[in-house]
Design brief:
With 549 residues, this protein is α/β, with parallel strands linked by helices. 32% of the residues lie in helices and 16% in strands. The structure holds NADP nicotinamide-adenine-dinucleotide phosphate.
Protein backbone atom coordinates (compact mmCIF):
# COMPACT_ATOMS: atom_id res chain seq x y z
CA UNK A 1 0.00 0.00 0.00
CA UNK A 2 1.28 3.43 -0.85
CA UNK A 3 -1.29 5.04 1.42
CA UNK A 4 -1.58 7.95 -1.02
CA UNK A 5 -5.02 9.52 -0.99
CA UNK A 6 -7.16 8.79 -4.00
CA UNK A 7 -8.62 11.70 -5.94
CA UNK A 8 -11.96 9.99 -6.52
CA UNK A 9 -13.76 6.79 -5.65
CA UNK A 10 -14.59 6.23 -9.30
CA UNK A 11 -13.40 7.63 -12.61
CA UNK A 12 -15.72 7.26 -15.58
CA UNK A 13 -14.64 7.84 -19.17
CA UNK A 14 -17.30 9.35 -21.41
CA UNK A 15 -20.37 11.54 -20.92
CA UNK A 16 -22.67 9.83 -23.39
CA UNK A 17 -25.81 7.93 -22.49
CA UNK A 18 -23.81 5.37 -20.45
CA UNK A 19 -21.51 7.79 -18.66
CA UNK A 20 -24.29 10.18 -17.65
CA UNK A 21 -26.32 7.40 -16.09
CA UNK A 22 -23.31 5.77 -14.43
CA UNK A 23 -22.38 9.09 -12.86
CA UNK A 24 -25.92 9.59 -11.60
CA UNK A 25 -26.08 6.09 -10.10
CA UNK A 26 -22.69 6.15 -8.42
CA UNK A 27 -23.03 9.68 -7.11
CA UNK A 28 -26.70 10.04 -6.29
CA UNK A 29 -27.82 6.51 -5.52
CA UNK A 30 -24.65 5.29 -3.81
CA UNK A 31 -22.97 8.48 -2.57
CA UNK A 32 -19.59 7.97 -4.24
CA UNK A 33 -17.16 10.65 -5.22
CA UNK A 34 -17.08 10.41 -9.03
CA UNK A 35 -15.34 12.19 -11.89
CA UNK A 36 -16.24 11.84 -15.54
CA UNK A 37 -13.69 12.72 -18.21
CA UNK A 38 -15.18 13.59 -21.57
CA UNK A 39 -13.23 14.41 -24.74
CA UNK A 40 -16.00 16.61 -26.20
CA UNK A 41 -17.00 20.06 -25.01
CA UNK A 42 -20.50 18.87 -24.15
CA UNK A 43 -22.50 15.84 -23.10
CA UNK A 44 -24.05 13.35 -25.51
CA UNK A 45 -21.29 10.98 -26.73
CA UNK A 46 -22.55 9.56 -30.03
CA UNK A 47 -25.16 12.32 -30.19
CA UNK A 48 -22.52 14.96 -29.61
CA UNK A 49 -20.02 13.78 -32.23
CA UNK A 50 -22.37 12.52 -34.97
CA UNK A 51 -23.88 15.84 -36.01
CA UNK A 52 -23.74 15.02 -39.72
CA UNK A 53 -26.63 16.11 -41.94
CA UNK A 54 -29.59 13.77 -41.68
CA UNK A 55 -28.40 12.03 -38.50
CA UNK A 56 -31.34 10.65 -36.54
CA UNK A 57 -32.56 7.70 -34.48
CA UNK A 58 -33.35 4.37 -36.05
CA UNK A 59 -35.01 3.40 -32.75
CA UNK A 60 -38.39 4.84 -31.84
CA UNK A 61 -37.57 8.02 -29.87
CA UNK A 62 -40.01 7.12 -27.09
CA UNK A 63 -38.38 3.72 -26.62
CA UNK A 64 -34.87 5.18 -26.64
CA UNK A 65 -34.87 7.74 -23.81
CA UNK A 66 -33.97 6.90 -20.21
CA UNK A 67 -36.72 5.01 -18.43
CA UNK A 68 -35.50 5.34 -14.83
CA UNK A 69 -36.69 8.83 -13.96
CA UNK A 70 -40.38 9.73 -13.88
CA UNK A 71 -39.73 13.48 -13.97
CA UNK A 72 -37.67 13.18 -17.14
CA UNK A 73 -40.39 11.04 -18.72
CA UNK A 74 -43.04 13.54 -17.63
CA UNK A 75 -41.23 16.65 -18.80
CA UNK A 76 -39.50 15.67 -22.04
CA UNK A 77 -41.48 15.76 -25.28
CA UNK A 78 -40.26 14.00 -28.41
CA UNK A 79 -41.34 15.80 -31.57
CA UNK A 80 -40.66 13.02 -34.10
CA UNK A 81 -41.03 9.26 -33.92
CA UNK A 82 -37.37 8.97 -34.94
CA UNK A 83 -35.77 12.10 -33.56
CA UNK A 84 -33.02 13.97 -35.39
CA UNK A 85 -29.59 14.41 -33.78
CA UNK A 86 -30.10 18.02 -32.57
CA UNK A 87 -33.18 16.93 -30.60
CA UNK A 88 -31.33 14.01 -29.00
CA UNK A 89 -28.40 16.22 -28.11
CA UNK A 90 -30.86 18.68 -26.52
CA UNK A 91 -32.47 15.79 -24.65
CA UNK A 92 -29.16 14.64 -23.17
CA UNK A 93 -28.35 18.22 -22.15
CA UNK A 94 -31.76 18.42 -20.52
CA UNK A 95 -31.03 15.23 -18.58
CA UNK A 96 -27.58 16.50 -17.54
CA UNK A 97 -29.15 19.73 -16.24
CA UNK A 98 -32.07 18.00 -14.58
CA UNK A 99 -29.78 15.66 -12.65
CA UNK A 100 -27.14 18.34 -12.11
CA UNK A 101 -24.46 16.15 -13.66
CA UNK A 102 -22.13 18.75 -15.20
CA UNK A 103 -20.36 19.63 -11.96
CA UNK A 104 -18.74 16.18 -11.92
CA UNK A 105 -17.76 16.16 -15.60
CA UNK A 106 -14.51 17.56 -16.95
CA UNK A 107 -14.98 18.41 -20.63
CA UNK A 108 -12.29 18.67 -23.33
CA UNK A 109 -10.52 15.96 -21.35
CA UNK A 110 -9.43 13.13 -23.61
CA UNK A 111 -8.06 10.18 -21.64
CA UNK A 112 -4.68 9.01 -22.89
CA UNK A 113 -3.99 6.16 -20.49
CA UNK A 114 -5.41 4.24 -17.56
CA UNK A 115 -3.01 2.10 -15.54
CA UNK A 116 -3.82 -0.19 -12.66
CA UNK A 117 -1.51 0.05 -9.69
CA UNK A 118 -1.07 -3.37 -8.04
CA UNK A 119 0.32 -1.82 -4.89
CA UNK A 120 -2.67 0.20 -3.80
CA UNK A 121 -5.34 -1.38 -5.98
CA UNK A 122 -6.18 1.83 -7.74
CA UNK A 123 -6.28 3.22 -11.27
CA UNK A 124 -4.27 6.18 -12.50
CA UNK A 125 -6.00 7.92 -15.36
CA UNK A 126 -3.92 10.37 -17.40
CA UNK A 127 -5.39 12.94 -19.76
CA UNK A 128 -3.83 14.14 -22.99
CA UNK A 129 -3.01 17.45 -21.27
CA UNK A 130 -0.83 15.55 -18.80
CA UNK A 131 -3.13 15.76 -15.75
CA UNK A 132 -3.35 12.50 -13.75
CA UNK A 133 -5.97 11.31 -11.27
CA UNK A 134 -6.28 8.23 -9.12
CA UNK A 135 -9.38 6.28 -8.18
CA UNK A 136 -10.35 2.87 -6.78
CA UNK A 137 -12.88 2.05 -9.50
CA UNK A 138 -12.51 2.71 -13.20
CA UNK A 139 -15.55 2.60 -15.48
CA UNK A 140 -15.37 2.80 -19.27
CA UNK A 141 -18.41 4.33 -20.94
CA UNK A 142 -16.65 4.80 -24.27
CA UNK A 143 -19.31 3.52 -26.66
CA UNK A 144 -19.21 0.70 -29.21
CA UNK A 145 -19.22 3.03 -32.24
CA UNK A 146 -17.07 5.98 -31.28
CA UNK A 147 -13.64 5.51 -32.87
CA UNK A 148 -14.08 6.89 -36.42
CA UNK A 149 -11.91 5.43 -39.16
CA UNK A 150 -10.74 6.85 -42.46
CA UNK A 151 -9.84 4.80 -45.52
CA UNK A 152 -6.14 4.51 -46.22
CA UNK A 153 -6.28 6.24 -49.61
CA UNK A 154 -3.06 7.69 -51.01
CA UNK A 155 -3.11 11.49 -50.99
CA UNK A 156 -5.93 11.74 -48.41
CA UNK A 157 -4.23 14.76 -46.82
CA UNK A 158 -3.76 16.54 -50.13
CA UNK A 159 -7.40 17.46 -50.79
CA UNK A 160 -7.79 21.24 -50.93
CA UNK A 161 -11.58 21.36 -50.44
CA UNK A 162 -13.44 20.60 -47.22
CA UNK A 163 -13.39 17.02 -46.00
CA UNK A 164 -15.37 15.70 -43.03
CA UNK A 165 -15.85 12.35 -41.34
CA UNK A 166 -19.49 11.91 -40.31
CA UNK A 167 -18.43 10.81 -36.81
CA UNK A 168 -16.34 13.97 -36.33
CA UNK A 169 -18.71 16.39 -38.00
CA UNK A 170 -17.87 20.09 -37.41
CA UNK A 171 -20.18 22.24 -35.32
CA UNK A 172 -20.45 24.92 -37.98
CA UNK A 173 -23.09 24.55 -40.68
CA UNK A 174 -21.72 22.89 -43.79
CA UNK A 175 -23.67 24.10 -46.81
CA UNK A 176 -23.93 21.93 -49.91
CA UNK A 177 -25.74 24.52 -51.98
CA UNK A 178 -24.07 24.83 -55.37
CA UNK A 179 -21.33 22.38 -54.32
CA UNK A 180 -19.92 19.24 -55.88
CA UNK A 181 -20.00 16.69 -53.09
CA UNK A 182 -18.64 13.13 -52.69
CA UNK A 183 -19.94 10.73 -50.08
CA UNK A 184 -17.78 7.65 -49.51
CA UNK A 185 -19.56 4.83 -47.65
CA UNK A 186 -23.15 3.56 -47.71
CA UNK A 187 -23.72 2.13 -44.23
CA UNK A 188 -26.49 3.43 -41.94
CA UNK A 189 -24.64 6.75 -41.64
CA UNK A 190 -23.87 7.15 -45.34
CA UNK A 191 -27.49 6.49 -46.26
CA UNK A 192 -28.77 9.19 -43.89
CA UNK A 193 -26.15 11.63 -45.15
CA UNK A 194 -26.77 10.93 -48.85
CA UNK A 195 -30.53 11.54 -48.57
CA UNK A 196 -29.92 14.92 -47.00
CA UNK A 197 -27.01 16.12 -49.15
CA UNK A 198 -28.87 15.20 -52.35
CA UNK A 199 -31.53 17.79 -51.49
CA UNK A 200 -29.25 20.79 -52.02
CA UNK A 201 -25.93 19.75 -53.60
CA UNK A 202 -25.25 20.89 -57.15
CA UNK A 203 -23.90 17.41 -57.77
CA UNK A 204 -23.52 14.43 -55.47
CA UNK A 205 -21.35 11.42 -56.29
CA UNK A 206 -21.85 8.41 -54.04
CA UNK A 207 -18.96 5.96 -53.76
CA UNK A 208 -20.31 2.60 -52.66
CA UNK A 209 -18.22 -0.46 -51.95
CA UNK A 210 -20.57 -3.22 -50.77
CA UNK A 211 -24.26 -2.26 -51.01
CA UNK A 212 -26.53 -2.71 -47.98
CA UNK A 213 -30.19 -3.70 -47.71
CA UNK A 214 -32.00 -0.50 -46.77
CA UNK A 215 -35.67 -0.27 -45.76
CA UNK A 216 -38.04 2.66 -45.13
CA UNK A 217 -37.95 4.35 -41.73
CA UNK A 218 -41.47 5.85 -42.02
CA UNK A 219 -40.70 8.72 -39.67
CA UNK A 220 -43.38 11.22 -38.75
CA UNK A 221 -44.03 14.11 -36.37
CA UNK A 222 -45.46 13.60 -32.88
CA UNK A 223 -48.19 16.09 -32.00
CA UNK A 224 -48.57 17.22 -28.39
CA UNK A 225 -51.75 15.10 -28.07
CA UNK A 226 -49.92 12.04 -29.37
CA UNK A 227 -47.03 12.71 -26.99
CA UNK A 228 -49.48 12.69 -24.10
CA UNK A 229 -50.87 9.39 -25.31
CA UNK A 230 -47.32 7.95 -25.61
CA UNK A 231 -46.49 9.22 -22.12
CA UNK A 232 -49.44 7.28 -20.78
CA UNK A 233 -48.07 4.17 -22.43
CA UNK A 234 -44.48 4.48 -21.13
CA UNK A 235 -44.83 1.63 -18.61
CA UNK A 236 -46.17 -0.64 -21.36
CA UNK A 237 -43.48 0.47 -23.86
CA UNK A 238 -40.60 -0.17 -21.46
CA UNK A 239 -42.12 -3.46 -20.35
CA UNK A 240 -42.28 -4.56 -23.98
CA UNK A 241 -38.64 -3.51 -24.53
CA UNK A 242 -37.73 -5.74 -21.57
CA UNK A 243 -39.47 -8.72 -23.17
CA UNK A 244 -37.95 -8.58 -26.66
CA UNK A 245 -34.62 -10.14 -27.62
CA UNK A 246 -33.12 -6.89 -28.88
CA UNK A 247 -34.95 -4.42 -26.58
CA UNK A 248 -36.92 -2.89 -29.45
CA UNK A 249 -40.71 -2.67 -29.49
CA UNK A 250 -40.72 -5.27 -32.27
CA UNK A 251 -41.05 -9.00 -31.65
CA UNK A 252 -40.43 -11.74 -34.26
CA UNK A 253 -43.51 -13.35 -35.78
CA UNK A 254 -43.91 -16.95 -34.53
CA UNK A 255 -44.52 -18.29 -38.07
CA UNK A 256 -41.82 -19.82 -40.26
CA UNK A 257 -41.28 -18.15 -43.62
CA UNK A 258 -41.63 -21.11 -45.96
CA UNK A 259 -44.41 -22.75 -43.98
CA UNK A 260 -46.54 -19.63 -44.49
CA UNK A 261 -48.68 -19.77 -47.67
CA UNK A 262 -47.23 -17.54 -50.37
CA UNK A 263 -50.03 -14.95 -50.55
CA UNK A 264 -50.12 -14.61 -46.76
CA UNK A 265 -46.32 -14.42 -46.66
CA UNK A 266 -46.15 -11.67 -49.27
CA UNK A 267 -48.88 -9.67 -47.55
CA UNK A 268 -46.98 -9.95 -44.28
CA UNK A 269 -43.68 -8.89 -45.87
CA UNK A 270 -45.41 -5.89 -47.46
CA UNK A 271 -46.90 -5.04 -44.07
CA UNK A 272 -43.40 -5.22 -42.53
CA UNK A 273 -42.02 -3.00 -45.30
CA UNK A 274 -44.66 -0.42 -44.41
CA UNK A 275 -44.09 -0.68 -40.64
CA UNK A 276 -42.00 2.15 -39.13
CA UNK A 277 -38.51 1.42 -37.84
CA UNK A 278 -37.01 -2.02 -37.47
CA UNK A 279 -40.33 -3.90 -37.74
CA UNK A 280 -39.04 -5.54 -40.90
CA UNK A 281 -35.79 -6.62 -39.24
CA UNK A 282 -36.73 -7.44 -35.64
CA UNK A 283 -40.39 -8.24 -36.20
CA UNK A 284 -40.22 -10.53 -39.21
CA UNK A 285 -40.69 -14.31 -39.54
CA UNK A 286 -38.81 -15.98 -36.71
CA UNK A 287 -36.44 -17.97 -38.95
CA UNK A 288 -35.46 -15.09 -41.22
CA UNK A 289 -32.05 -14.51 -39.65
CA UNK A 290 -31.11 -18.17 -39.17
CA UNK A 291 -32.48 -20.08 -42.15
CA UNK A 292 -30.84 -19.45 -45.52
CA UNK A 293 -33.94 -20.24 -47.59
CA UNK A 294 -36.12 -18.04 -45.41
CA UNK A 295 -33.54 -15.30 -45.64
CA UNK A 296 -33.54 -15.56 -49.42
CA UNK A 297 -37.29 -14.95 -49.50
CA UNK A 298 -37.05 -11.65 -47.65
CA UNK A 299 -33.89 -10.64 -49.56
CA UNK A 300 -35.68 -11.25 -52.88
CA UNK A 301 -38.66 -9.25 -51.60
CA UNK A 302 -36.52 -6.23 -50.69
CA UNK A 303 -34.55 -6.52 -53.96
CA UNK A 304 -37.84 -6.20 -55.87
CA UNK A 305 -38.73 -3.05 -53.90
CA UNK A 306 -35.33 -1.57 -54.87
CA UNK A 307 -35.96 -2.42 -58.55
CA UNK A 308 -39.37 -0.74 -58.34
CA UNK A 309 -37.99 2.39 -56.77
CA UNK A 310 -34.83 2.97 -58.83
CA UNK A 311 -35.63 3.88 -62.43
CA UNK A 312 -32.33 2.93 -64.05
CA UNK A 313 -32.09 -0.89 -63.96
CA UNK A 314 -28.27 -0.90 -63.98
CA UNK A 315 -28.17 1.46 -60.98
CA UNK A 316 -30.78 -0.65 -59.19
CA UNK A 317 -28.67 -3.79 -59.63
CA UNK A 318 -25.62 -1.98 -58.22
CA UNK A 319 -27.66 -1.13 -55.12
CA UNK A 320 -28.75 -4.72 -54.45
CA UNK A 321 -26.41 -6.70 -52.21
CA UNK A 322 -25.24 -10.03 -53.58
CA UNK A 323 -22.70 -10.94 -50.88
CA UNK A 324 -25.04 -11.10 -47.87
CA UNK A 325 -28.70 -11.63 -47.11
CA UNK A 326 -31.17 -9.14 -45.69
CA UNK A 327 -30.61 -8.35 -42.01
CA UNK A 328 -27.24 -10.08 -41.72
CA UNK A 329 -25.55 -6.68 -41.52
CA UNK A 330 -27.06 -3.63 -39.77
CA UNK A 331 -30.05 -2.54 -41.88
CA UNK A 332 -29.82 1.17 -42.78
CA UNK A 333 -33.18 2.87 -42.36
CA UNK A 334 -34.03 5.30 -45.13
CA UNK A 335 -36.39 8.03 -46.24
CA UNK A 336 -36.58 8.16 -50.05
CA UNK A 337 -32.95 6.98 -50.22
CA UNK A 338 -33.40 4.88 -53.34
CA UNK A 339 -35.30 7.70 -55.10
CA UNK A 340 -32.19 9.88 -54.70
CA UNK A 341 -30.63 7.84 -57.52
CA UNK A 342 -33.43 9.00 -59.86
CA UNK A 343 -32.30 12.61 -59.44
CA UNK A 344 -30.24 14.15 -62.26
CA UNK A 345 -27.75 15.62 -59.76
CA UNK A 346 -26.81 12.23 -58.23
CA UNK A 347 -24.45 9.58 -59.55
CA UNK A 348 -23.59 6.20 -58.02
CA UNK A 349 -20.09 4.79 -58.46
CA UNK A 350 -19.55 1.17 -57.52
CA UNK A 351 -16.14 0.83 -55.98
CA UNK A 352 -16.36 -2.90 -56.60
CA UNK A 353 -16.16 -2.06 -60.33
CA UNK A 354 -13.94 1.03 -60.22
CA UNK A 355 -12.18 1.46 -56.88
CA UNK A 356 -10.86 4.78 -55.61
CA UNK A 357 -7.12 4.81 -56.24
CA UNK A 358 -6.14 8.11 -54.69
CA UNK A 359 -7.41 11.39 -53.30
CA UNK A 360 -6.07 14.39 -55.23
CA UNK A 361 -5.91 18.12 -54.35
CA UNK A 362 -9.02 18.70 -56.50
CA UNK A 363 -10.99 15.51 -55.82
CA UNK A 364 -10.17 11.87 -56.41
CA UNK A 365 -9.27 9.28 -59.01
CA UNK A 366 -10.87 5.91 -59.46
CA UNK A 367 -9.42 3.18 -61.65
CA UNK A 368 -11.11 4.77 -64.70
CA UNK A 369 -11.93 8.43 -64.00
CA UNK A 370 -10.92 11.66 -62.29
CA UNK A 371 -13.47 13.61 -60.24
CA UNK A 372 -13.42 17.16 -58.90
CA UNK A 373 -15.17 17.99 -55.63
CA UNK A 374 -15.70 20.89 -53.26
CA UNK A 375 -16.49 18.59 -50.32
CA UNK A 376 -15.58 14.96 -49.59
CA UNK A 377 -17.60 13.25 -46.86
CA UNK A 378 -16.19 10.11 -45.28
CA UNK A 379 -19.09 7.99 -44.01
CA UNK A 380 -16.63 5.17 -43.52
CA UNK A 381 -17.63 3.99 -40.08
CA UNK A 382 -15.88 3.09 -36.88
CA UNK A 383 -13.31 0.79 -35.38
CA UNK A 384 -16.25 -0.76 -33.59
CA UNK A 385 -16.64 -2.31 -30.14
CA UNK A 386 -12.96 -2.73 -29.20
CA UNK A 387 -11.66 0.32 -31.13
CA UNK A 388 -12.51 2.90 -28.48
CA UNK A 389 -10.64 0.76 -25.92
CA UNK A 390 -7.64 0.30 -28.24
CA UNK A 391 -7.23 4.06 -28.52
CA UNK A 392 -6.53 4.37 -24.78
CA UNK A 393 -3.42 2.80 -23.28
CA UNK A 394 -5.22 0.60 -20.73
CA UNK A 395 -2.89 -1.49 -18.57
CA UNK A 396 -4.03 -3.91 -15.90
CA UNK A 397 -2.19 -5.93 -13.26
CA UNK A 398 1.55 -6.37 -13.92
CA UNK A 399 1.35 -3.84 -16.75
CA UNK A 400 -0.57 -6.16 -19.08
CA UNK A 401 -2.06 -4.16 -21.97
CA UNK A 402 -5.74 -4.61 -22.77
CA UNK A 403 -4.97 -4.27 -26.47
CA UNK A 404 -2.56 -7.23 -26.26
CA UNK A 405 -4.95 -9.27 -24.15
CA UNK A 406 -7.67 -8.82 -26.78
CA UNK A 407 -5.44 -9.35 -29.82
CA UNK A 408 -7.14 -12.61 -30.80
CA UNK A 409 -10.58 -11.25 -29.85
CA UNK A 410 -11.98 -10.02 -26.55
CA UNK A 411 -12.45 -12.22 -23.53
CA UNK A 412 -14.72 -10.82 -20.83
CA UNK A 413 -16.86 -11.63 -17.86
CA UNK A 414 -20.46 -10.68 -18.76
CA UNK A 415 -18.98 -8.11 -21.14
CA UNK A 416 -18.44 -5.97 -18.06
CA UNK A 417 -15.14 -7.12 -16.52
CA UNK A 418 -11.82 -8.38 -17.84
CA UNK A 419 -9.52 -10.77 -15.99
CA UNK A 420 -6.36 -9.04 -14.74
CA UNK A 421 -7.96 -5.62 -14.99
CA UNK A 422 -9.16 -5.42 -11.40
CA UNK A 423 -11.77 -2.85 -10.42
CA UNK A 424 -12.34 -1.98 -14.09
CA UNK A 425 -15.93 -2.15 -15.35
CA UNK A 426 -17.26 -1.63 -18.86
CA UNK A 427 -20.68 -0.25 -19.71
CA UNK A 428 -21.28 -1.60 -23.24
CA UNK A 429 -18.00 -3.34 -23.77
CA UNK A 430 -17.58 -6.33 -26.07
CA UNK A 431 -19.83 -9.36 -25.40
CA UNK A 432 -22.81 -7.34 -24.19
CA UNK A 433 -26.28 -7.09 -25.68
CA UNK A 434 -26.55 -4.05 -27.99
CA UNK A 435 -29.93 -3.74 -29.76
CA UNK A 436 -31.96 -0.71 -28.67
CA UNK A 437 -28.91 0.42 -26.81
CA UNK A 438 -30.17 2.66 -23.97
CA UNK A 439 -32.24 -0.25 -22.71
CA UNK A 440 -29.05 -2.34 -22.44
CA UNK A 441 -27.12 0.62 -21.06
CA UNK A 442 -29.58 1.11 -18.20
CA UNK A 443 -29.29 -2.51 -17.15
CA UNK A 444 -25.50 -2.70 -17.43
CA UNK A 445 -24.90 0.68 -15.76
CA UNK A 446 -27.09 -0.48 -12.86
CA UNK A 447 -25.27 -3.82 -12.59
CA UNK A 448 -21.88 -2.09 -12.60
CA UNK A 449 -22.97 0.54 -10.06
CA UNK A 450 -24.40 -2.23 -7.89
CA UNK A 451 -21.12 -4.17 -7.98
CA UNK A 452 -19.13 -1.06 -7.10
CA UNK A 453 -21.54 -0.25 -4.28
CA UNK A 454 -21.14 -3.80 -2.98
CA UNK A 455 -17.37 -3.34 -2.93
CA UNK A 456 -17.49 0.10 -1.39
CA UNK A 457 -19.96 -0.86 1.30
CA UNK A 458 -17.97 -3.93 2.30
CA UNK A 459 -14.52 -2.37 2.19
CA UNK A 460 -13.54 -4.52 -0.79
CA UNK A 461 -10.58 -3.00 -2.58
CA UNK A 462 -9.96 -5.59 -5.27
CA UNK A 463 -12.35 -7.30 -7.70
CA UNK A 464 -11.24 -9.53 -10.54
CA UNK A 465 -13.24 -12.14 -12.45
CA UNK A 466 -11.97 -15.72 -12.28
CA UNK A 467 -10.47 -17.32 -15.37
CA UNK A 468 -13.14 -20.02 -15.31
CA UNK A 469 -15.88 -17.37 -15.15
CA UNK A 470 -14.37 -15.59 -18.15
CA UNK A 471 -13.94 -18.82 -20.12
CA UNK A 472 -17.52 -19.86 -19.43
CA UNK A 473 -18.91 -16.48 -20.44
CA UNK A 474 -16.81 -16.30 -23.60
CA UNK A 475 -17.90 -19.84 -24.55
CA UNK A 476 -21.51 -18.90 -23.85
CA UNK A 477 -21.24 -15.83 -26.11
CA UNK A 478 -19.92 -18.10 -28.87
CA UNK A 479 -22.67 -20.64 -28.28
CA UNK A 480 -25.55 -18.15 -28.52
CA UNK A 481 -24.08 -16.76 -31.74
CA UNK A 482 -24.12 -20.15 -33.47
CA UNK A 483 -26.53 -20.45 -36.36
CA UNK A 484 -27.01 -16.71 -36.76
CA UNK A 485 -26.37 -15.79 -40.38
CA UNK A 486 -25.04 -12.36 -39.32
CA UNK A 487 -22.10 -14.01 -37.58
CA UNK A 488 -20.97 -15.49 -40.90
CA UNK A 489 -20.75 -12.07 -42.54
CA UNK A 490 -18.03 -9.42 -42.47
CA UNK A 491 -19.27 -6.28 -40.73
CA UNK A 492 -18.48 -4.16 -37.70
CA UNK A 493 -20.73 -6.56 -35.75
CA UNK A 494 -18.20 -9.32 -36.36
CA UNK A 495 -15.26 -7.06 -35.61
CA UNK A 496 -14.15 -6.40 -39.18
CA UNK A 497 -12.73 -3.04 -40.23
CA UNK A 498 -10.56 -3.21 -43.34
CA UNK A 499 -9.15 0.25 -42.53
CA UNK A 500 -7.63 -0.93 -39.25
CA UNK A 501 -4.58 -3.15 -39.00
CA UNK A 502 -5.29 -6.44 -37.26
CA UNK A 503 -9.10 -6.20 -37.78
CA UNK A 504 -9.39 -8.29 -40.93
CA UNK A 505 -10.52 -11.47 -39.24
CA UNK A 506 -13.92 -12.07 -37.67
CA UNK A 507 -14.04 -12.15 -33.89
CA UNK A 508 -16.65 -12.74 -31.25
CA UNK A 509 -17.33 -9.05 -30.79
CA UNK A 510 -20.84 -8.86 -29.37
CA UNK A 511 -23.30 -10.99 -27.47
CA UNK A 512 -25.90 -11.96 -30.06
CA UNK A 513 -28.30 -13.91 -27.85
CA UNK A 514 -31.48 -12.57 -26.28
CA UNK A 515 -31.13 -9.51 -24.04
CA UNK A 516 -33.75 -11.06 -21.75
CA UNK A 517 -31.46 -14.02 -21.07
CA UNK A 518 -28.43 -11.73 -20.81
CA UNK A 519 -30.09 -9.73 -18.07
CA UNK A 520 -31.34 -12.85 -16.30
CA UNK A 521 -27.84 -14.32 -16.10
CA UNK A 522 -26.19 -11.08 -14.98
CA UNK A 523 -28.85 -10.43 -12.34
CA UNK A 524 -28.60 -13.98 -10.97
CA UNK A 525 -24.84 -13.60 -10.65
CA UNK A 526 -25.27 -10.35 -8.70
CA UNK A 527 -27.98 -11.87 -6.48
CA UNK A 528 -25.69 -14.78 -5.70
CA UNK A 529 -23.01 -12.40 -4.45
CA UNK A 530 -21.12 -11.93 -7.72
CA UNK A 531 -20.25 -15.49 -8.55
CA UNK A 532 -16.90 -15.89 -10.27
CA UNK A 533 -15.56 -12.55 -9.11
CA UNK A 534 -12.66 -12.68 -6.67
CA UNK A 535 -13.04 -9.97 -4.04
CA UNK A 536 -10.38 -9.10 -1.50
CA UNK A 537 -9.99 -6.38 1.08
CA UNK A 538 -6.46 -5.42 1.79
CA UNK A 539 -7.30 -2.23 3.58
CA UNK A 540 -6.04 0.97 1.97
CA UNK A 541 -7.04 4.55 2.00
CA UNK A 542 -10.39 5.31 0.38
CA UNK A 543 -11.32 8.69 -1.02
CA UNK A 544 -13.77 10.82 0.90
CA UNK A 545 -17.31 9.98 0.03
CA UNK A 546 -18.12 13.55 -0.87
CA UNK A 547 -20.56 13.40 -3.76
CA UNK A 548 -19.98 17.04 -4.70
CA UNK A 549 -16.20 16.84 -4.93
P1 LIG B 1 -20.55 1.15 -41.42
O1 LIG B 1 -21.85 0.51 -41.33
O2 LIG B 1 -19.34 0.42 -41.00
O3 LIG B 1 -20.39 1.63 -42.93
C1 LIG B 1 -19.19 2.16 -43.41
C2 LIG B 1 -19.30 2.32 -44.90
O4 LIG B 1 -18.07 2.85 -45.40
C3 LIG B 1 -19.53 1.00 -45.62
O5 LIG B 1 -20.34 1.25 -46.73
C4 LIG B 1 -18.12 0.61 -46.04
O6 LIG B 1 -18.07 -0.25 -47.15
C5 LIG B 1 -17.55 1.97 -46.39
N1 LIG B 1 -16.10 1.99 -46.32
C6 LIG B 1 -15.34 1.90 -45.21
N2 LIG B 1 -14.04 1.95 -45.56
C7 LIG B 1 -13.99 2.07 -46.90
C8 LIG B 1 -12.93 2.13 -47.83
N3 LIG B 1 -11.68 2.07 -47.44
N4 LIG B 1 -13.25 2.24 -49.13
C9 LIG B 1 -14.55 2.28 -49.51
N5 LIG B 1 -15.60 2.21 -48.69
C10 LIG B 1 -15.31 2.10 -47.39
O7 LIG B 1 -20.51 2.54 -40.60
P2 LIG B 1 -21.70 3.57 -40.32
O8 LIG B 1 -22.52 3.75 -41.54
O9 LIG B 1 -21.08 4.77 -39.71
O10 LIG B 1 -22.60 2.83 -39.28
C11 LIG B 1 -22.05 2.20 -38.15
C12 LIG B 1 -23.16 1.88 -37.19
O11 LIG B 1 -23.54 3.07 -36.49
C13 LIG B 1 -24.45 1.41 -37.81
O12 LIG B 1 -24.40 0.10 -38.23
C14 LIG B 1 -25.40 1.65 -36.68
O13 LIG B 1 -25.38 0.63 -35.73
C15 LIG B 1 -24.88 2.94 -36.09
N6 LIG B 1 -25.69 4.03 -36.64
C16 LIG B 1 -26.89 4.25 -36.02
C17 LIG B 1 -27.72 5.21 -36.50
C18 LIG B 1 -29.02 5.42 -35.81
O14 LIG B 1 -29.47 4.71 -34.98
N7 LIG B 1 -29.72 6.39 -36.18
C19 LIG B 1 -27.36 5.98 -37.59
C20 LIG B 1 -26.14 5.75 -38.21
C21 LIG B 1 -25.30 4.77 -37.70
P3 LIG B 1 -18.04 -1.85 -46.93
O15 LIG B 1 -19.41 -2.20 -46.45
O16 LIG B 1 -17.70 -2.39 -48.24
O17 LIG B 1 -17.00 -2.12 -45.88
Amino acid sequence: MTGKKLDFDAIVIGAGISGLYELHLLRDRYGLNVKVFEAGTGVGGTWYWNRYPGCRFDSESWSYGYSFNQEILAEWNWTEHFAPQPETERYLNFVADKLDLRKNIQFSARVKSAHYDDNDESWTVTLENGESYRSRYFVTCVGPLSAPTYPKFDGIESFEGESCHTGLWPKHKVSFEGKRVAVIGTGATGVQTIQEVAKTAKHLTVFQRRPNWCTPLHNGPISSEEMEEIRGRYPEIFRLCKETASCFVHNPDPRKTLETPEAERNAFLQNRYETPGFGIWMGNFKDMLTDRDANKVISDFVAERIRERVKDPATAEKLIPTDHGFGTRRVPQETFYYEVYNQPNVELISMLETPIERITPKGLETSDRSFEFDIIIYATGFDAITGSFDRIDIQGADGIKLKDKWKGGPTTYLGMMVKDFPNMFMVIGPHTALGNIPRSIEHIAEWVAGAIHHMHQNGITFADPTQSGVDEWTDYVAEVGEGLLSNEIDSWMTGINLNVEGKQTRILARYSGSAVEYRRRCDKIAEDGYTDVTFTSRGGVMANANPNH
